[in-house]
């Protein structure tokens, strides 16, 4: 083994990497928020939407679940370019991840909705609640509890998937690492440090979610 | 009077062959990785379940790292690490090794779930009927556990097929990289991406529906 490790240039660049890590988190969190909203809508549409909307929702969910996330990013990158719509790398990653998150979460939400018995809806309605009150006050809180764990997993996936931003020219943690690595040729060292940063981010999310669950679902 | 020179040329039939070959390479690397990864995953999953403490701290930690670091980072890291330890390897071998470990990390969890799905009383009953530990594993745990987790294994396999697209960063000419090259040449992203997407979809959708059906028929 005649390879000399050079860690110093990497450590000098650490503040930039941390900043890029925050950008990664930002995109992941925003894509989760968008994904949860879209996923809820998709799940509801798939269960009791009008025909054409139900087809669109089904198509969305199946496409998101059955093609690679990278394909979806390429689609938002090159594919929309075919229609003269050129998005910035940030938007490509954000929309691509949201599309993917929404598809996976919709399936989880559907499972959650099916797990809440019908009788509760009827009970809430007969207490005089409107349909939207029933959903917001009775159904969704219970569904959230059921899908909390899958949602945490999806958040982890969003962080991991955001690394694909590197391939569409987005300088989040991976893209930034790639940039510095190709400047200095210390590819292994840079990516090793980045791997550690990702690991720490993922662990923080998992621990945070566990602590939050303890508070949220106390009773 | 010369024709204006263009760097781009339209989408041709030849390009479909090119895409087809690339799709074949996607299938090849996925099949290799899923096979090797599953074999190791079964072993890891069993050892995680069988010896809680030792395996948990060693194999468990390593597999956990592989699940918590983006695959693309793992690929680049190992592709640049192998030459350091003196193994000069191509994109296929490096990609297959990393994908196999990644698969093993996911399968190990599935297998552990499968073994735990077989109740302790059932296994005690097997042992008290005079079965050896291995007979118990082979004739009791395997058939029951397999049923419980086969659908999740299909899910893992499908996600590996999709994730194999990432080996493109190493320069392995799989489907998505081939489409990217064609897009650069033909400037017709929509058709090409539609072809690539349709291939993944046609592969993944029926299998996921099939495993969903199996799951439903086994649980009811």
TrEMBL record, chain A:
It holds the Pfam family BPD_transp_1. The chain crosses the membrane at residues 20-45, 73-99, 154-170, 190-213. Its main location: membrane. It is found in: Cell inner membrane; Cell membrane. The keyword Lyase does not apply. It is a multi-pass membrane protein. Keywords: Amino-acid transport, Cell membrane, Membrane, Transmembrane, Transmembrane helix, Transport. It comes from the Bacteria. Residues 21-206 form the ABC transmembrane type-1 domain. InterPro entries: AA_ABC_transptr_permease_3TM, ArtM/GltK/GlnP/TcyL/YhdX-like, MetI-like, MetI-like_sf. PANTHER family: L-CYSTINE TRANSPORT SYSTEM PERMEASE PROTEIN TCYL, MEMBRANE COMPONENT OF AMINO ACID ABC TRANSPORTER. Belongs to the binding-protein-dependent transport system permease family. HisMQ subfamily. NCBIfam families: HEQRo_perm_3TM. This is Amino acid ABC transporter permease. It comes from Kiloniella laminariae.
TrEMBL record, chain B:
Its main location: membrane. It comes from the Bacteria. The keyword Zinc does not apply. Residues 23-211 form the ABC transmembrane type-1 domain. It is found in: Cell inner membrane; Cell membrane. Signal peptide: none annotated. Pfam families: BPD_transp_1. It is a multi-pass membrane protein. SUPFAM superfamilies: MetI-like (SSF161098). CDD domains: TM_PBP2. The chain crosses the membrane at residues 27-48, 69-87, 93-118, 139-161, 181-203. Keywords: Amino-acid transport, Cell membrane, Membrane, Transmembrane, Transmembrane helix, Transport. InterPro entries: AA_ABC_transptr_permease_3TM, ArtM/GltK/GlnP/TcyL/YhdX-like, MetI-like, MetI-like_sf. Belongs to the binding-protein-dependent transport system permease family. HisMQ subfamily. This is Amino acid ABC transporter permease. It comes from Kiloniella laminariae.
């Amino acid at each position: 083994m005649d390879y000399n490790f050079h860690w110093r240039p990497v450590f000098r660049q650490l503040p930039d990497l941390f900043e890029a890590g925050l950008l990664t988190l930002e995109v992941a969190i925003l894509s989760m928020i968008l994904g949860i909203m879209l996923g809820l809508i998709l799940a509801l549409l798939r269960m009791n939407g009008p025909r054409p909307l139900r087809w669109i929702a089904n198509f969305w969910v199946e496409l998101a679940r059955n093609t690679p996330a990278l394909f979806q990013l390429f689609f938002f990158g090159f594919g929309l370019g075919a229609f003269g719509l050129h998005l910035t790398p940030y938007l490509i990653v954000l929309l691509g991840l949201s599309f993917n998150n929404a598809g996976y979460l919709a399936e989880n939400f559907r499972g959650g909705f099916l797990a809440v018995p019908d009788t509760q809806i009827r009970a809430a309605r007969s207490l005089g609640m409107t349909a939207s009150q029933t959903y917001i006050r009775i159904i969704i809180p219970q569904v959230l509890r059921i899908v909390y764990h899958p949602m945490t997993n999806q958040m982890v996936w969003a962080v991991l998937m955001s690394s694909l931003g590197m391939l569409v020219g987005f300088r989040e943690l991976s893209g930034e690492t790639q940039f510095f690595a190709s400047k200095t040729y210390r590819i292994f060292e840079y990516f090793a440090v980045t791997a550690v940063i990702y690991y720490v981010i993922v662990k923080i999310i998992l621990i945070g979610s566990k602590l939050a669950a303890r508070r949220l679902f106390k009773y | 009077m010369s024709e204006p020179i263009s760097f781009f040329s339209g989408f041709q039939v030849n390009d479909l062959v090119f895409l087809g070959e690339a799709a074949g390479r996607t299938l090849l690397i996925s099949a290799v990785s899923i096979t090797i990864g599953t074999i190791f995953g079964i072993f890891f999953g069993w050892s995680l379940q069988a010896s809680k403490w030792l395996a948990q701290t060693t194999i468990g930690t390593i597999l956990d790292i592989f699940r918590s670091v983006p695959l693309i980072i793992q690929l680049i890291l190992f592709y640049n690490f192998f030459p350091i330890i003196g193994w000069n390897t191509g994109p296929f071998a490096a990609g297959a090794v990393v994908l196999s470990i990644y698969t093993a990390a996911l399968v190990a969890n599935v297998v552990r779930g499968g073994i735990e799905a077989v109740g302790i009383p059932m296994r005690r009953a097997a042992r008290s009927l005079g079965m050896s530990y291995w007979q118990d594993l082979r004739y009791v745990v395997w058939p029951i556990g397999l049923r419980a987790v086969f659908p999740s294994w299909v899910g893992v396999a499908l996600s590996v097929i999709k994730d194999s697209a990432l080996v493109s960063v190493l320069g392995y000419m799989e489907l998505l990289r081939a489409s990217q090259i064609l897009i650069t040449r033909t400037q017709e992203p929509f058709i090409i991406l539609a072809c690539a997407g349709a291939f993944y979809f046609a592969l993944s959708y029926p299998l996921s529906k099939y495993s969903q059906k199996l799951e439903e028929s086994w649980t009811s």
